[in-house]
Specification:
single chain; 185 residues; alpha+beta; three-stranded antiparallel β-sheet; two-stranded antiparallel ribbon; 7 helices
Amino acid sequence: MTEVENSRKIDTKKLDAIIEKNKRNNEGVEDLTEKDLLPSPNMQYIREVIFTVDDSVSVSDIKEIIPLIAKRFVVECFQIAIDRQENKAHLLFDWYDRKHGECVYLYPSKKLEFTVVLMRELKLPHTEESRQWLKRFLIEEYSHDKNIFRSLMEGLKPSHYGVHGYYIMRVLIQLGEDICKGQAK
C-alpha cells in the first residue's frame, strides 16, 4: 500500500481548540506559532490507499467492506476507483476523526492490520511480501472465529499426512492458536 502526500495547511479547528483551552486555563497564547498548528507528515487528513486487485474484485466488493474499515479504524472512504489496466484499486480516505476533532494516526502495527483486513475481506492473494505478516493473518482469522484451531485439529487424520506429518500438523495448529492467544511468539 502506498499513501499520497497531502499539502500541509493550518488546522483552524485545532487553533481554536488550543486558544479556547488556554483561555480556560488562563494561559497565554502568544507562544503559538504556525509550526505548532501544522499537521506532521504522519498526520495527513486525506490519504490514498492503493493496492493490487484481480479481475474479480469490483467497486461494489470494496464498498461492502468500507463500513467495517470505518468502524475499526475511524477513517472514512469517500472515493473508490479501479484502474483495470494496472489492476490497482485507489481509495481516498478522510483521516479526520470528527468525534474527537483530530487527525487519525495509525501506528505501523495498525497500518499492517489495515492491510490484512483489506486482504482478508477482499480475498486478495498473499504476495511474497505478505509472507512476513503470517502472524497478523492468523490473529485476524482467530478474531473472527475463536474455534478455528479446534476445528482444524478435529479435522486432522493421521492417514492424510502419515505419522510424522500428522504430528507436525498438530504442533503447527497448536502453535498458531498459542500465537493468537499471546502465549507464543
